[in-house]
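We modelled the chain as a single entity of 396 amino acids. Its sequence is:
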Amino acid sequence: MELSSLLNRFSEPETLKMAKLGRELRAKGIDVIDLSLGEPDFDTPQHIKDAAIKAINDNWSHYTPVPGFLDLREAVCTKLKRDNNLTYTPEQIVVSTGAKQSLANAILALVDEGDEVVIPTPYWVTYSELVKIARGKVVEIRTSVSNKFKATPEEVAAAITPKTKVFMFSSPCNPSGAVYSKEELAALVNVFEKHPQVIILSDEIYEYINFVGKHESIAQFDSIKDRVVVINGLSKGFAMTGWRLGYTASSTPIAKAFEKLQGQFTSGTCSITQKAAVAALTGNLQPSLDMTAEFTRRRVKTLELVNAIPGFTCFAPEGAFYVFPDVSYYYGKSNGSETISNAADFSMYLLNNAHVSSVMGDAFGEPKCVRFSFANSMENIEKAWGRIAEALKKLS
């Protein structure tokens, strides 16, 4: 059987691959602590679940409009005005089955073969693979710990060519935890104003998990707002990963393009999830704030434990729930039977010897680093880093 060549253009997400390997070991009776997946270890808040139950009882069980129910799109507009001082109309909102589909809609609707998409490293694993699916060209801007893993205006300007179609980034960033300030975004806007052909995809899925202050969206700048696509969803901020709901806010022509594309893929998102999302976006935010408070405590403990590991260089994340240390100090080291040559070897060594899952940095465009999540209990975080420290002591 000959399958489509499309499948050869992109790779399986390393985040999912490592989670799968961890499950396989767990099935053999091994106690594996998962620091690989980006999923809050909290249950969905009760008022959101109650709204879903009511929707089921009220028989909201039929096909939904492709871009989402009107009341949900109005709720997204309310949220964007309340939290971000951004003004959008419901026709500018497209609801999808998760922010990942929203990203796919954006790339497939905007990028043609040969178009360049500029992405600062490190970036979420799916960004580059979506560009490859669309036959576009990924142009990486290699950021550094010294710049807090943020692209500078000079770096962005140097990366843009006449073939550049899209600039794609996240703030807060998965995996680095970098958060762009209003001043830093304004400096990037000065660059984008000189290049009117560039569309900016702003992934803001970790908006509520911010350790350094108020979230700032690049869509707040009027001079480029019509070229900004805001991508967000409910998975991270509301502990709704399994519900599958994301959304975009953009200019009307771009939104109509997303709707046309989605109409041939999934059509509308689950009706029950949409009704629950209205409650999430317009209801009490205290559960989300409580989750961020707990992530803040775990961040402190995780940084304490990470910084005690010899050879690690680690940026203190400003948002999201990951640390992304440079582990290259251990490249070339061995325990006698295994040698660490790269980040993939490092992650596999920890999985097999410490029984802790992580994700190699190559997947995020940064081969010297490894991503560890702190979306796990404090007990498991302390146990995991104790195991990691012991396993690394065996390397020389």
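As a brief sanity check on the tokenised model: The domain at 5-43+287-393 is CATH 3.90.1150.10 (Aspartate Aminotransferase, domain 1). The chain has a mean pLDDT of 96.
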